[in-house]
Amino acid sequence: MRFERDAEIEQKGAFSKGLVLDVPEGAELCVMKPKHDYSESLLVHFRRIESLKESALGYLSVHLNKRQLCDLELLLNRAFYPLTGYLGREDYESVVEDMRLADGAVWPMPICLDVDEQMALSLEKGRLVALRDEEGFMLAVLTVGDIWKPDKSVEARCVFGTNDPDKHPGVRDLHEHVGPWYVGGSLEGLHLPIHYDFRELRLTPAEIHRRFSQNGWRHVIGFQTEKHLHCAHKEMTLRAAREAGASILLQPVVGLTHPGDLDHYTQVRCYQEIVKKYPKNMIMLGLIPLAMRKAGPKEALWHAIIRKNYGCSHFMVAADHADPFAHNSGNERFYPMGAAQDMVQSFEEETGIRMVPLQKMVYVEEKAEYIPEAEVEPGMNVKQISSSELRRRLENGLAIPEWFSYPEVVAELRLAYPPRSKQGFTVFITGLSGAGKSTLAKVLMVKFMELRDRPVTLLDGDIVRRNLSSELNFSKDHRNLNITRIGFVASEITKNGGIAICAPIAPYEESRRHNRELICHYGGYVEVYLSTPLDVCEQRDRKGLYAKARAGIIKGVTGVDDPYVPPSDPELVIDTTEASPDEAAQEVLLYLEEQGYIR
Ligand code: PPS
Question: So what's the architecture of 59-189 in CATH?
Answer without folding.
Answer: Roll (3.10)
